Amino acid sequence: MSAIKKPVVIGLIGAGTVGSGLIQLFLREKELLEQRLGFPLVLSSIADRSIHSLKMDGLSQFKLTTDPMDVISDPEVQIVIELIGGIEPAKTFLLDAINRGKSVVTANKALLALHGEELFSAVRTHGVDIAFEGAVCGGIPILRALREGIGGDRVLSLKGIINGTSNYILTKMTEDRISFSEALSQAQSLGYAEADPTFDVDGMDAAHKLAILGTLSFGVPIPFSEIPVDGIRGINELDIEFGRELGYVLKLLGIAKDHGTSVDLRVHPAFLPEESLLAKVDGVFNAVEVTGRALGTALFYGRGAGADPTASAVMGDILELARGIHSECTLQVPPLGFSWDARHPRPMTPRSEVKSEYYLRFMAHDRPGTLSFLSGILGEHGISIESVIQKGRKKGGSVPVVILTYTATQASIQSALEIIDHSHHVTEPTVLIHVERVSE
User: Fold this and answer.
1) CA angle, residues 152, 153, 156, in degrees to nearest 5
2) Annotation-wise, does 14 bind a ligand?
3) Contact yes or no for 26/315 (Cβ under 8 A)
C-alpha cells in the first residue's frame, strides 16, 4: 500500500477575470496537476470582496471569504496567490505573506515594475519563493525561458509586441485603413480595450512588462521611471500608408539592449520590415524576439492576455513553487535568474544617445529649394538619407515629404528637427518614427 503523500496547500486572493480562470483550471485539471506533481495540490481558501456573487460550480469545497487576511494568516496555506492587481493593498498583502514564511505567486506587472526590488529583497530575507510568469505576455512562458531555458547564454537584446490592445489597434489601422479613433472604438466594442485605454495606448502597460523582461535579461535592477515611453495615440493613418509603400509595418515595441556599460530600454512605435516575423504578429497576439550570443535569435509567440492564458501561466508558477516546498528545497533558481550578489546597477542609456534609423514625415511647402533645405540640415547634423518620397504637388500649399535615414543618434535627429520645425519650409511639426531592422 502506497504511503499518503503530503499535499501542498495554496490560497487565492482575487477571483476576478484571471482568478476565476485559475479556479476553473484547478477544478478541471485537478487530477492532471497531481499526476504532474506526484502529490496533491489543495486549493484551500479564496478571498474576494465579491466572493458571494461568484457563480461557479464546485466552490462549496473551498473556504470562501471577503477578507484576504483570512487566507494570509491561515497556517495551512503555504503559497499565497495574489491576483487583485494594482499597487495597494496588493503589495501589503504580498509582503505580509512573505513575512509569515509563505511563498507567493503574482501576475501584477505594475507592482513588480515599480516595487519589485522590495518584494525580491523580502523573499531573500525570509527564504521563500516568488513567481510571476503571468505578469508578462499571459500564456507565453517568456520569463521562464529567460531565467532557465537560455540561462546559460548572454542575452544581447530583445524586442517585443507586448501589449495586445495597441497591437490590435495598429493592425486594424493597417488592414482597414482607418484612423486611430475608429480602431480604438472597435477594440473597445470587442472588449480588447478598456473604457479608459490610457495605460495601453500610451505605452505604460508595455513599459511595466519591459522593466521585468529587462531585469531578467541583463541581471540589473531597472528604474522604471527612467524608461522612455511613447504610445500610439498620435499615430496617423497617413504614416502607416507611407510605411506600407516603403515595405514596413508599424508596431508598438518594447526594446531592451545590453550595451555593456549601460542598458537601453524604451517603448515606442517603430516600423519593422514587412518580411520580419514580428511584423506578422497581428491582432491581440504578443511576441518577444530574443537575441543571445550563442542562441542567435528566437521568437516566443502566443496570446498575451485573457483569463485562460494568464491562468495557465499562474498555474505553472504554482507547480514550480509547490515542487520546491514538497522537496524542502526552495529558491533553487533565483526568481530573477541571477544570484542576488551578482545583480549590480548599471546606468540607463540616455535617450539622446540611442542610435536608430528613422522615418521622418515633413509637411513641406511645395516650392523650389524646400527639399534641398531639408536634406541640407540633416546633412549638417551628420544624418545620411536612405530614400525620399514626395507625394503630389500643391502649388502654394504643403505636401508630405518622407525621408528614411540611415543610423543616427536621437540627439542629432532632434537638433536637426529643431531647426527644420522652426523654419518657413514646413507647416507643422515633423513626424518621427523609429525604424527597427531584423536582428542578425
Assistant:
1) 155
2) yes
3) yes
**DSSP string of 56-75?**
-TTGGGSEEES-HHHHHT-T
Residue ranges in 306-407 assigned as alpha helix (H): 307-326, 370-380
C-alpha cell at 36: 504532474
For residue 1, the model assigns a pLDDT of: 40
Q: What is the pLDDT of residue 396?
A: 61
Q: Which amino acid is at 336?
A: L
Q: Kindly report the number of other CB atoms within 10 A of residue 391's CB atom.
A: 13
**What is 8-138+307-342's CATH superfamily?**
NAD(P)-binding Rossmann-like Domain (3.40.50.720)
Instruction: Consult the annotation and say whether 17 binds a ligand.
Output: yes
Integer Cα distance of 425 and 349 in angstroms = 33
Q: How far is CA 308 from CA 10, 132, 204, 397, in A?
A: 19, 16, 23, 54
Chain region(s) in the chain for CATH 3.30.360.10: 142-303
86 in a known ligand binding site: no
CATH 3.40.50.720 residue spans of the chain: 8-138+307-342
The values of phi and psi at residue 258, to 5°, are -100, 110
Q: Is residue 194 a known part of a binding site?
A: yes
Which residue intervals of the chain bear CATH 3.30.70.260?
A: 354-435
Helices (H), 222-363: 237-246, 307-326
The set of catalytic residues is 209
Whether this prediction's pTM lies above 0.90 is answered by yes
8 Å CB contact between 173 and 237: yes
Question: What does the pLDDT read at residue 425?
Answer: 94
Segment-wise mean pLDDT, segments of 10 residues, the chain, 440 residues: 77 96 96 96 96 87 96 98 97 98 97 97 95 94 95 96 97 97 96 93 98 96 96 96 96 97 97 96 96 96 90 97 89 83 90 95 91 96 95 74 97 98 95 85
> What pLDDT sits at residue 98?
98
**Known binder of ligand: residue 103?**
no
As its CATH architecture, domain 142-303 has: 2-Layer Sandwich (3.30)
Residue 57: the pLDDT is: 86
Under 8 Å between Cβ of 156 and 258: yes
- The pLDDT of residue 138 is 87
Counting Cα atoms < 13 Å in the Cβ hemisphere of 324 gives 23
Architecture of the domain whose range is 354-435? 2-Layer Sandwich (3.30)
* Closest residue by Cα to residue 211 from 342, 138, 84, 108: 108
Query: Any known ligand binding at 353?
Result: no
* Amino acid sitting at position 291: T
For residue 55, give the amino acid letter.
K
Hey, how many other C-beta atoms are within 10 angstroms of the C-beta on 385?
14
